[in-house]
Design the sequence.
């Protein structure tokens, strides 16, 4: 690579693009890490609430724990919907569509 001589403005532009892409990837990774951490916290809360429901509680305590369990479950479902999929299924769907349109 040392034998390739590019003008400085082109090298600067390539480096700027590379850095921007790397930062964007790093930021996305940090966002997903935060979402996964929130998911772990919520999951632990659900476990704790389920354990509490198996203990001796009065009606007021039991209603409160059940309500919190429902809220945590809803929050987990929302978090799961916001986390991007790790494996994209779109190419598989496109391949199936192409084969269907190619057949007579």
Sequence:
């Amino acid at each position: 690579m040392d034998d390739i001589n590019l003008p400085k403005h082109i090298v600067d532009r390539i480096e700027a693009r590379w850095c921007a892409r790397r930062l964007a990837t790093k930021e996305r990774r940090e966002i997903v890490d935060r979402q996964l951490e929130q998911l772990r916290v919520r999951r632990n809360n659900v476990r704790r609430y389920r354990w509490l429901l198996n203990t001796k509680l009065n009606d007021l305590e039991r209603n409160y724990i059940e309500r919190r369990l429902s809220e945590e479950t809803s929050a987990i479902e929302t978090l799961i919907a916001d986390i991007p999929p790790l494996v994209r299924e779109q190419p598989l769907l496109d391949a199936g569509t192409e084969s269907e349109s190619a057949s007579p």
Summary: Residues 87-104 have pLDDT under 50 and may be disordered. The two ends are 50 Å apart (CA to CA). Residues 8-82 form one domain.
